[in-house]
Specification:
Elements (H helix, E strand, L loop, with lengths): L8 E5 L1 E5 L2 E5 L2 H9 L3 E5 L6 H8 L4 E4 L22 H17 L3 E4 L1 H9 L3 E3 L19 H4 L4 E5 L4 H6 L5 E3 L6 E4 L4 E7 L4 E6 L5 E4 L11 H21 L2
């Protein structure tokens, strides 16, 4: 009989914020809940772990990595552009890139959401549109921040899974999927080691996977929002946790 000790331990990246003049690192409950509800044990990872010796020690206990969404954006110098981001989080940039690189080397399962997708793309040498809504031919993928959260995270548009990919394997088909949309940045160029897993109607790549990794999947939408209520979200988190369980059995048991 399975026990709590058989459940995979999932490292979840945090974001920097300020609360009453105190710097804090935090992660939204929805990510932690989605991991737990799919059968994993979430463990929040502080930014200071980007130091190689500390990162190696932390990774030695983990079975998977979740890169969350965030209000912040990757600093543009990481993908060859000048300028600054008003909502930057350099500590998260450092840790996320270190986690991506380590997960790819160790073949540790990686699931990335929204900013996490962009981190995977940039870490592998790709680039981003900083404001998708200003790119001719692309639609506005942002949420209306004046609406209640339930409406911000409501289904917004369809994506079309590519045949032969990880998404098709998880879903069992390539029928279009309706997803929410809460992002300003998006993929401009995709590095060779990543494959497009799904696209929106305007052609924007909305999901990617790593070609040489057992399970390194990233999506631009937010499946963690009420993750058990959507068949697509359940398939994503269940597939991720199953990959982490396999990794645990192979390398941790």
């Amino acid at each position: 009989m399975d026990t709590i000790f058989d459940r995979p331990l999932i490292g979840v990246v945090m974001c920097q914020a300020d609360r009453h003049d105190h710097p804090v690192q935090m992660v939204h409950n929805k990510y932690l809940d989605a991991v737990q509800e799919a059968g994993g044990v979430p463990l929040a990872l502080p930014h200071g772990l980007y130091s190689p010796s500390l990162l190696d020690r932390a990774l030695s206990a983990l079975d998977g990595i979740l890169l969350t969404g965030s209000p912040s954006n990757i600093e543009p110098h990481h993908y060859g552009e000048s300028g600054e981001e008003a909502d930057a989080d350099p500590g998260r940039d450092r840790l996320a890139f270190a986690l991506v690189n380590a997960a790819l080397v160790q073949k540790m399962p990686l699931f990335a959401i929204c900013r996490g997708l962009q981190e995977l793309v940039v870490a592998c040498g790709g680039s981003l549109h900083r404001q998708v809504q200003r790119v001719p031919g692309l639609q506005d993928h942002r949420e209306d921040a004046s609406l209640p959260l339930e409406q911000q995270y409501a289904p917004a548009h369809d994506v079309w899974p590519e045949p032969g990919g990880v998404l098709e394997a998880l879903l069992g088909h390539t029928a279009p999927q309706t997803v929410n949309s809460l992002h300003q940045q998006g993929i401009r160029s995709l590095p060779a080691e990543l494959r497009a897993e799904a696209r929106a109607a305007d052609g924007l790549v909305e999901a990617v996977s790593h070609r040489q990794h057992p399970f390194a999947l990233a999506v631009q939408w937010h499946p963690e929002w009420h993750s058990r209520e959507s068949a697509l979200s359940r398939s994503l988190f269940d597939g991720f946790i199953a990959a982490c369980q396999h990794f645990h059995q192979e390398y941790r048991a």
